[in-house]
Amino acid sequence: MTRMSRRSLTLGLLSGAALAATGTSFALRKGERALVIGAGPAGALAASKLAASNPGASVTLIERDPTRMAREPAPATAFDRPASGATLSTLAAAGVQVKIDEVTGVDWRAGRAALFSGRAMAFDRLVLAPGIAPKVEKIAGLDARARHAWPAAWGNAREARRLSSQLAALRENGHVVLRLPAEISHPHVAMTRALALARAVAAVPGARLTVLDESNDPALRQGFAMAAGLQRISRNVAWLTPAQGARVTAVDADRGLLLTDAGEIRADVVNFIAPQQAGVLAQKAGLTDASGWCPCDDQGRSARVLGAVVLGDARKSAARTVACALASAQALPV
Q: Which PANTHER family does this UniProt record tie to the protein (predicted)?
């Protein structure tokens, strides 16, 4: 299997000026090849747009998650990530070739993307929609086993189903905890998540929800209170701020225990959200800065690597809504 070091990958990207210098359109000549990495809303739209604008070219969309694009849309849960709006059949009809694989390295000098399967894809133009990934937190007890037991369901379909199953099995008088990190990348998603959990708790006699909000964002807290009040689901909800001891310092998933500045909290179901950053490929490619996000201009051109174009939530300036992701794809110059 072909793999590249971070240094060689970054050097390859830096040489990408020969392929796609800043200000250059993504218009493709007949027979040229475009690769789009990531089949979220931005990536799927970008691939369709490139195919429609360049009928004589080859456009391939690479996605690592086989559940992302079912032939028919799968039933959604309350915690699923936004659908791309595209299926294998609709993308094929638009002239887009789809490959289920993972990009492990990019060599812009050679115009080749290395894949997890061991294959390589040649390209003339490359668009990255790498999505997001959780940051590692130094919290005692928060290991892989704890993260499995307490799914974040933050852009992960399997975790969304696991969290839904846990809530469906919530006992009477059960306790659900939502932990929100100090850095919230998607405030609107945090709001939606808190409301979804409050609705789940309201359906179980005696159950309650505790939100450990380490962000201390008054707009988020006030917005939840207003929406939950209108939906009449705020009765058994406690929202703790950092001043009230919301910070989590240690966990014991086997015992359903969180140690906070306010003391021990026991829970039957925990939705533990980690702080986020740009996806792994963006990090390996040297596209991120100290914030963990990709600084770009309005058309997604990287401020760190000449020739790289980034779409969707990974961009540092992104509002991280579906509308914003789609707008980033619409802004792609073709």
A: FAD-DEPENDENT PYRIDINE NUCLEOTIDE-DISULPHIDE OXIDOREDUCTASE, PTHR43755
